[in-house]
Design goal:
The structure is a single chain. The chain is of the alpha+beta class. It has helices at residues 3-42, 57-84, 88-117, 119-129, 173-179, 186-190, 243-275, and strands spanning 131-135, 143-145, 153-161, 167-172, 205-209, 218-224, 233-241. The protein folds into 2 domains: 3-120 and 244-275, no CATH class; 129-242, Jelly Rolls, CATH 2.60.120. It is built from 7 helices and 7 strands, in the order H-H-H-H-E-E-E-E-H-H-E-E-E-H. Strands 1-7-3-5 form a 4-stranded antiparallel β-sheet. Helix 2 (57-84) runs antiparallel to helix 3.
Length: 281
């Protein structure tokens, strides 16, 4: 085949590759929107009434998985483009740009992985999100949620400290609304407390583990000071990063880093091969 004919044929092939790539990316963008609706609204139980709850933890895992798939597809398309490129300069430029992009993505993903997996970093994040509440007997009980609005941080335990022995009740919202009729209803609420065993402070302290529920929940904290209304307690809500983040999402991000590093290793000899006759530096 004459050189001019081969150049024309390769140009047509490159054009088709670009069209297929753009079409595939558009389809995957639609898939991402559909998966967002499924993971957030359907499986995640998102709500806007009576309170806003938009769980993003599972969606981020799906997002990273889809980005990993797109990343592998882009490598395949880049290999085709390198094959049918018109000149050594074009191949060199393609390889060089692809390497830079993969290095940047690998570094960003690695930083996120370190943030989600290194215990000292995770611990600092969790400590910064802990929240303290002052609770006084006889007042309307305060409340807290099982997680934040986006389900990125979960409330795993409640620490209570008081100057004397008190009783602490963690009540699910539905039961609290049904049975609470003022301070005199504490004896009734005690029968429906979530913390069946750990509810009395020992040595002026108490740690209550909050069980993981399958839905976004509001909890109320009721304190029974046993007729000593002058006693107040400090309640600290202990938070942890979502298990989906530190588990599934972190593993997918590690795979993302490894994939991009492997791609860079593959491109290094390709970039060097075509750099000699390239007009680009």
């Amino acid at each position: 085949m004459p050189a001019s004919g081969k150049v024309l044929e390769d140009s047509i092939r490159l054009s088709r590759i670009h069209k297929i790539k753009l079409t595939l990316y558009a389809v995957q963008a639609v898939m991402l929107v559909a998966l967002a609706v499924l993971t957030i609204a359907v499986f995640g139980g998102a709500t806007v009434n009576p309170y806003v709850y938009i769980p993003l933890d599972a969606f981020f895992g799906v997002l990273v998985l889809l980005l990993l798939i797109i990343c592998l597809e882009s490598f395949f398309f880049r290999m085709l483009e390198l094959r049918f490129a018109r000149s050594s300069s074009a191949r060199h430029l393609m390889a060089k740009r692809s390497m830079k992009r993969s290095i940047v993505m690998a570094v960003v993903a690695a930083v996120v992985v370190m943030t989600l997996t290194v215990p000292s970093i995770v611990g600092r994040i969790e400590e910064s999100r802990d929240q303290s509440i002052y609770v006084t007997p006889g007042t309307y009980p305060p409340y807290f949620y099982s997680s934040d609005v986006f389900s990125l941080m979960e409330t795993v335990s409640v620490h209570v400290s008081a100057p004397r022995q008190i009783q602490v009740y963690i009540i699910i919202e539905e039961l609290f609304q049904q049975y609470y009729n003022g301070p005199d209803s504490l004896s009734v609420l005690a029968s429906y407390r979530l913390n069946t065993y750990d509810y009395i402070t020992i040595d002026n302290e108490l740690l209550i583990e909050i069980p993981a529920l399958d839905r976004f929940t509001r909890f109320y904290i009721a304190i029974d000071a046993m007729d000593d209304i002058g006693v107040s307690a400090v309640v600290t809500l202990m938070k942890e990063v979502s298990g989906t983040f530190t588990g599934t999402t972190s593993l997918l991000l590690i795979a993302f880093v490894v994939t991009n590093v492997a791609w860079v290793a593959y491109l290094i000899p390709v970039e060097r091969k075509y750099s000699t006759g390239s007009i680009y530096r």
